[in-house]
UniProtKB/TrEMBL annotation:
Phosphorylase is an important allosteric enzyme in carbohydrate metabolism. Enzymes from different sources differ in their regulatory mechanisms and in their natural substrates. However, all known phosphorylases share catalytic and structural properties. NCBIfam families: more_P_ylases (TIGR02094). The keyword Transport does not apply. The modification N6-(pyridoxal phosphate)lysine is found at K602. Signal peptide: none annotated. This is glycogen phosphorylase. Gene3D superfamilies: Glycogen Phosphorylase B. Belongs to the glycogen phosphorylase family.
């Protein structure tokens, strides 16, 4: 039975459909659109108003609407079908894990991440890292891995993006009400709520642990906004990546050290510890401390725990790798190193980095030294990471540095449009979802008639255009402006999407290098193009905000207006709508700074080919027939030259390859056969190889099982 703290506040639900509440408290619904439909159909307007949040919805919904649903045979039929699917999922005995590893009963994987992108109604993610973590947890559930995830709840979430009249981004923080999210206070074996303690300078901080059910696995999220923390400490976990470095190190202490303590208090006994990015690397120190307290020397303790630890590095951008000044480490850890039996200098040595900006304590160095299993997130990124951290391995050449690579993937059910899922159900065979990573299954895509795939894709595009127009109207209403009546976006024309964080290396304004050329391309008679942009800049990244402002203002210029739009608040809902609805996904980072990228995988899965720089995952995926490659696979010493060359290449592709193929050679029924060929090739080549299923199977085989003492290590 689920314990519902706020039960009393719900609208009473008729007995026949009472399990809607249980369903709301298992995030399984986030990747089952048919489960979301059960709520939406009861009151579509409220579903939008509550931003697709079933817990909130059940608190707000009118009694008579619930009664009407409970009396509607058609509704009950759908309800029963969803509950049956849910029950059979939760109760399944034959699973991926039991099939592949029948003798691994002792394995338990603890997965730490600073952010989790599970759904737009739970805004505790900022971008790619969080989305990847969320997808990772969902897939761990689908494969029935012995898995538990640990992170923060951030009661004020990540910021909501607003733009003012000039297109300047400002941040809005909305408090997450715990009664409105599927949070369940975690209880220890004695039935007490779990609050963990971590020492900070001059005080103890307390973090309360909440449990979220994600299908078959649990996600534990900590919250410091509780009594008896000081007001300042209560703010500590308020926001993701908010505050200064002191706040950041405090957060990371609670994540790494508090996270281990939370697992212990709840009776978990992990045999594998996975640090997803360096934010949680302090867990290495806590695991050593536990052993030193039992009389083991620090050296031996470190050797022992390393064999169980896994670390994934995610960025080749130096600022993305946390490093703290030594005086700050001293302030936070002077009480900790004696517990490890170390002196100050010995302690600093564990993660000392003197390569850049003077000596610092580097979380990536700590994570690498504290784990035997490490990986980057694409082949190219693995290579770059081996060069970046070569100094930690004296005497080894770049190729010998023990950082492997496992390329990212996306959780298929989360990102696939329901309309396409129906199509795939019809053509890929009954068990396609059990074999998501099998290329043979996806070859059947070619059996879908061109006009059927085209019609579905046109429908998805039309939905996206309606979604975009509504978002833009809402933006104007918010600013108390007239909603423009000029035509905005046109049905049927080639539509290109660009959505990502506005970090400068992603070069959101590359398309605008030569405005006249762009105007020509956008308005070419018979072959027009339109663009949909979205993306957030980090609240402290003014150059990123200037990029947003540039796009926003350029989109109003004569010759571009109506054909270029910028959508506020890039979140998972916008990400879904865009990757499912555009014709082409554009990605033009400055090579080689994109570690992997995953949004393009979502687009391809939905039949929208990529037009991308050969960076991150794309060099592995691009085969000449499944999309387009911008520029060359080379390094530049001059960034202006790189930008100019890449822009020229992009214009050339848009004009001669992409638009021509989209508009030319249509059948009598107006179906672009040559175009559909690229769509199908993009689905068949990307969907299996860049699925989260393939990624997690690689993690299990190459990292998790060896770390758990089953099977041998590779690197
Ligand atoms: C997929 C996704 C990302 C990550 O995509 P990149 O290709 O790494 O930029 C970021 N934000 C949202 C909302 C997403 O859906």
């Amino acid at each position: 039975m689920i314990r519902l703290e706020h039960e009393i506040l719900f609208t009473p639900i008729p007995e026949r459909i009472a399990r809607l509440r249980e369903l709301a408290y298992n995030l399984w619904w986030t990747w089952h659109p048919e489960a979301q439909e059960l709520y939406r159909q009861i009151d579509p307007d409220l579903w939008e108003l509550d931003y697709h949040n079933p817990v909130d919805f059940l608190r707000d919904v009118r009694q008579r609407k619930l009664d009407a649903a409970a009396a509607d045979p058609a509704y009950l039929k759908r309800f029963d079908a969803v509950m049956k699917a849910f029950d059979s999922y939760m109760g399944a005995k034959k699973t991926w894990f039991s099939k592949h590893h029948p003798n691994a009963k002792d394995v338990q994987i603890a997965y730490f991440s600073a952010e989790f992108g599970l759904h737009e109604s739970l805004p505790i993610y900022s971008g790619g890292l969080g989305i990847l973590s969320g997808d990772h947890v969902k897939e761990a559930s689908d494969m029935a891995l012995p898995f538990v995830a640990v992170g923060f709840i951030y009661p004020q979430g990540y910021f909501r993006q607003r733009l003012d009249h000039s297109g300047w981004q400002f941040a809005e923080y909305n408090k997450i009400n715990f009664a409105d999210v599927p949070a369940i206070p975690a209880l220890d074996p004695d039935g007490h709520e779990v609050v963990v303690e971590v020492e900070l300078p001059g005080r103890t901080i307390y973090a309360k642990v909440y449990k979220f059910r994600v299908g078959r696995v649990e996600l534990l999220l900590m919250d410091t906004d509780i009594h008896p923390n000081s007001p300042q400490d209560r703010e500590l976990s308020a926001r993701l990546y908010g505050g200064d470095q002191e706040m950041r190190i405090s957060q990371e202490l609670v994540l790494g050290i508090g996270g281990v303590r939370a697992l212990r208090r709840l009776g978990f006994t992990p045999t594998v510890w996975h640090m997803n990015e360096g934010h949680s690397a302090f867990l290495v120190l806590e695991l050593c401390r536990e052993l030193v307290a039992q009389g083991v020397s620090f050296e031996d303790a470190l050797q022992q725990i390393k064999t169980q630890c896994v670390f994934t590095t995610h960025t080749p951008v130096p600022a993305g790798n946390d490093a703290f000044p030594l005086p700050m480490i001293e302030k936070f850890f002077w009480n900790f190193w004696p517990q490890l039996g170390l002196t100050r200098d010995e302690f600093m040595q564990i993660a000392l980095q003197e390569q850049q900006w003077g000596p610092t304590f580097a979380m990536t160095a700590l994570a690498l030294r504290g784990s035997d299993f490490h990986n980057g997130v694409s082949k190219l990124h693995g290579h770059v990471a081996r060069g970046m951290w070569q100094w930690l391995y004296p005497g080894k050449s770049q190729d010998e540095v023990p950082i492997a690579s496992i390329t990212n993937g996306v959780h298929t059910a989360t990102w696939l449009a329901p309309e396409l899922r129906e199509l795939y159900n019809a053509y890929l065979g009954k068990t396609w979802e059990d074999n998501l990573d099998d290329p043979k299954v996806w070859k059947k895509i070619y059996q879908i008639p061109d006009e059927v795939l085209w019609t579905t894709r046109q429908k998805l595009k039309s939905q996206l255009l309606a979604f975009a127009r509504e978002r833009i109207a809402a933006h104007h209403r918010h600013l108390h402006q007239h909603v423009p009546t000029d035509p905005l976006l046109e049905e049927g024309i080639l539509t290109i999407g660009f959505a990502r964080r506005f970090a400068t290396y992603k070069r959101a304004t590359l398309l605008f290098k030569d405005i006249e050329r762009l105007k020509y391309l956008i308005n070419r008679p018979g072959k027009p193009i339109q663009f949909i942009f979205a993306g957030k800049a980090h609240p402290k990244d003014d150059p990123g905000k200037h990029f947003i402002q540039d796009v926003y203002q350029l989109a109003r210029q004569p010759g571009l207006a109506g054909r270029i739009v910028f959508l506020e608040e890039y979140d998972m809902a916008v990400g879904r709508a865009m990757t499912q609805g555009v014709d082409v996904w554009l990605n033009n980072p400055r090579r080689p700074y994109e570690a992997s990228g995953t949004s393009g995988m979502k687009a391809s899965l939905n039949g929208a080919p990529n037009c991308s720089i050969l960076d991150g995952w794309w060099p592995e995926a691009y085969n000449g027939q499944n999309g387009w490659a911008i520029g060359e696979e080379r390094e530049y010493s001059n960034q202006d030259e790189q930008d100019w060359n890449d822009a020229q290449s992009l214009y050339y592709l848009l004009e001669h390859e992409i638009a021509n193929r989209f508009y030319d050679g249509r059948t009598d029924a107006d179906v672009p056969t040559a175009w559909i060929q690229v769509c199908k090739e993009s689905i068949a080549s990307v969907a299996p190889a860049f699925s989260m299923r393939r990624m997690l199977a690689d993690y299990v085989r190459e990292l998790y099982m060896p770390a758990a003492g089953h099977g041998s290590a590779k690197g």
